[in-house]
Write a structure and sequence with these properties.
Blueprint: H1 2-30, H2 32-52, E1 55-56, E2 62-63, H3 65-84, H4 87-110, H5 127-157, H6 159-162, H7 166-193, H8 197-225, H9 240-256, H10 268-284, E3 289-296, H11 299-306, H12 308-325, E4 330-334, E5 339-345, H13 349-364, E6 367-368, E7 373-374, E8 377-383, H14 391-407, E9 413-414, E10 419-420
Parallel strand pairs: 8-9
Antiparallel strand pairs: 1-2, 3-5, 3-8, 4-5, 6-7, 9-10
Helix pairs in contact: 1-2, 1-3, 1-8, 2-3, 2-4, 2-5, 3-4, 3-5, 3-8, 4-5, 5-7, 7-8, 11-12, 12-13
């Protein structure tokens, strides 16, 4: 019986792990959420089996398929998510299982408050078992949270000694962390059900066996399966989700054509494609049109001192602040690295200075978290009819005035008549 159990356990483990690898591979098409959901469903079965279901194995070993098979495979599968996807994706099952089980424990604890009705004479809820499972699930999930982080960190650390041999790194990291987990999990079993010390050694032997089985399978998956490109999926009539996804992505593409990916405002291509017609239409309709050329001050210093991540944050913050002051009929473009163009239809020459000054003040209120500092902008303005009747003419005037504002000390607005704040000591004629 013991040897039959061992053969069944190993066979079941190999089939289960292969199935989970297939689901992980399919996540490239159907989404990682499917894999994480399956992992979460099996987590409940794992805890139940670890509470009540143990089998005899050769050499006097007694182990639970829940603890040995399902938990060991889950830990290595989370590591594979990290290797094949990224750290952000790997934290989803880690956090999800931890938070999900906390909710289960809280809900299960409230069931004792209900008055129950028996549907049949011989069936009544075993709330004591559910309570024990809840406590064991909470303890096991807390360990899993620590285990999953540790196995990823250890896997990366082992690169120093084992290089790019991923199978060896998975094996060493999994055996080390599963050993740590067995010590912690046995402490929980000892506290809850007074498990004998033999359970510690039996469970450890079973988990080491699973690590020896799963690690080569994981290495083979990384070497031979994960690297292979997926073939083009066939569209099937019943695949309604594929059709809906295609439609959503198509509509999203249409919506975001001409958008700058970093800031979300219109990009330079859209400015060059639509800007001239916006100005021409306003001139033809005898409507006021104003152009504001906005430039972040000392942007290169932000990149040099704090890095490009901080520079990107500064651009996003500036675009957001400018955008909060624009109207539905205005067009905000990211023209270059740190330059924005704002086209304001219906804004007369008398109002462009006030609009630019509001933007300057509003942007200066921002503190970029990555730097802990305020940012500022310099602005040059031009108005249709007075400074020109074409986009090129308005842009040229605004560009000269922008540089006049910068030479005057930055964090200024220049409309050709006055520098704000300050004086027009460095102004150029419009």
């Amino acid at each position: 019986m013991a040897y039959r159990n061992a053969i069944l356990l190993i066979l079941e483990a190999a089939i289960y792990f292969a199935m989970m690898l297939a689901i992980l591979r399919a996540s490239k098409r159907i989404g990682i959420g499917v894999f994480i959901t399956v992992l979460g469903v099996m987590h409940f079965l794992e805890t139940y089996l670890a509470s009540v279901f143990y089998i005899g194995l050769p050499f006097g070993v007694v182990a639970s398929p829940g603890s040995a098979l399902l938990f060991s495979s889950k830990l290595i599968l989370i590591l594979l998510v990290y290797i094949t996807e990224d750290a952000d994706t790997a934290r989803q099952p880690i956090y999800g299982l931890f938070i999900g089980n906390a909710v289960v424990i809280l809900f299960a604890g409230s069931l004792a408050l209900y008055g129950t009705a028996d549907l049949s004479p011989n069936r009544s809820p075993d709330l004591k078992l559910l309570d024990e499972m809840g406590l064991l699930m909470g303890w096991g999930t807390a360990l899993l949270f620590i285990d999953a982080i540790l196995i990823i960190l250890l896997y990366e650390k082992l690169r120093t000694w084992l290089g790019d041999n991923r199978t060896a790194r998975i094996l060493v990291s999994s055996t080390a962390i599963l050993t740590f987990d067995q010590l912690g999990f046995f402490a929980g079993l000892r506290f809850l059900i007074m498990a004998p010390v033999d359970v510690l050694w039996s469970g450890w032997i079973a988990k080491m066996t699973m690590a020896l089985l799963f690690s080569p399978m994981a290495g083979a998956y990384l070497s031979w399966v994960a690297r292979q490109p997926l073939g083009r999926p066939k569209r099937r009539l019943w695949d309604v989700f594929g059709a809906l996804t295609y439609r959503e992505r198509y509509e999203d593409l249409l919506e975001n054509i001409g958008r700058d990916r970093l800031t979300g405002v219109f990009d330079r291509g859209y400015f060059e494609a639509k800007g001239a017609s916006i100005v021409a239409q306003a001139i033809e309709d005898d409507r006021p049109i104003s152009l504001l050329l906005i430039d972040l001050d000392n942007f290169k210093n932000i990149n040099d001192q704090f890095g490009h991540r901080a520079g990107d944050a500064a651009l996003r913050f500036a675009a957001h602040q400018i955008g909060t002051l624009t109207r539905d009929i205005d067009y905000l473009f990211r023209y270059g690295g740190d330059e924005f163009v704002l086209l304001c239809s219906g804004l007369p020459p008398g109002g462009v200075q006030a609009m630019a000054e509001r933007i300057r003040r509003h942007v200066s209120e921002v503190v970029v978290p990555e730097t802990g500092r305020h940012i500022s902008v310099s602005i040059g303005t031009a108005s249709g009819g007075i400074n020109g009747d074409t986009l090129e003419a308005l842009f040229e005037v605004a560009d000269k005035r922008l540089y006049a504002a910068k030479r005057a000390g930055r964090n200024r607005v220049f409309d050709g008549e006055a520098l704000s704040p300050g004086h027009e000591d460095a102004a150029v004629a419009s």
